[in-house]
Model the fold of this input.
Amino acid sequence: MADTAARAIAERLRAECAEEIDRLGTGFRERPWLREAFLAVPREVFVPDRVWWPHRSAEDGLFPLLDRGLRPRQWLRSVYRARVPLITQIADGAVLPDGPTDRTDFTGSISCPAVVVSMLRHLDPQPGERILEIGTGTGYGTALLARRVGAGAVTSVEIDKALATHAGVALRAVGCAPRLVVGDGEGGHPPGAPYDRVIATAAFRRLPQALLDQLRPGGVLLAPLDTPFGCDGLARLTADGHGRAHGRFVGAVDFMKVRGQRDRPTSYAELGWPTWGDYRVTVEHGHQHIRTTL
Done:
């Protein structure tokens, strides 16, 4: 596709994707800045030319490879599927993006647009606040954050050097220059602390104390937390400035685990989860209620 035609198609798909996100009921919701950022930032700049579709093909049972060079329109449409993430890395880069695969050890992705928007809506960053992002990934979420608070106020940490390099190139391509750090996000980035808000794009089994320690009093941590229920819970916590934080789950998501916490624990009880006996189920007049007994 010619550059002009491709840009026009991308803008149309971006607008259609925004409309679909709104229809899902988890959209921009009184966050006009978020809609503006979503429409302004070209998501396609951050997606590698070759990515895997996250669902197996009915024909051969493999995860198909989407190749921008071979089928640019298919690739671009996939970039703006509101509820579909795209796989950017398998086995920490050991599997090359040169064809379909049956491997399921996904280690990198660009989250689906609906989830990216939902997370930033829950984070609710304010202009000028200092933001720490754990997991730069493709850099797309980093760019959206920078539109809100300014690139100079965003610090993003990525453990994988190759992913960080790709993100840096993409961010520069859209004129964005946040602080990018290659390192283990579980330790945060103390030189930039204290932060007003911290967001993680990989799931934890145990929330790192270092992230709480680097939040100002009243600061917000938004992070996926592994649960016993087959998904991750999106936890939104408010820090007290003394190493403690309290909050609740604001949604159900599905993220790859941070590298240092991939192994499953012996039991979820070790991670502070209540046992099943702590839940009470009530069904009355066609309505079901589930709550803890605490």
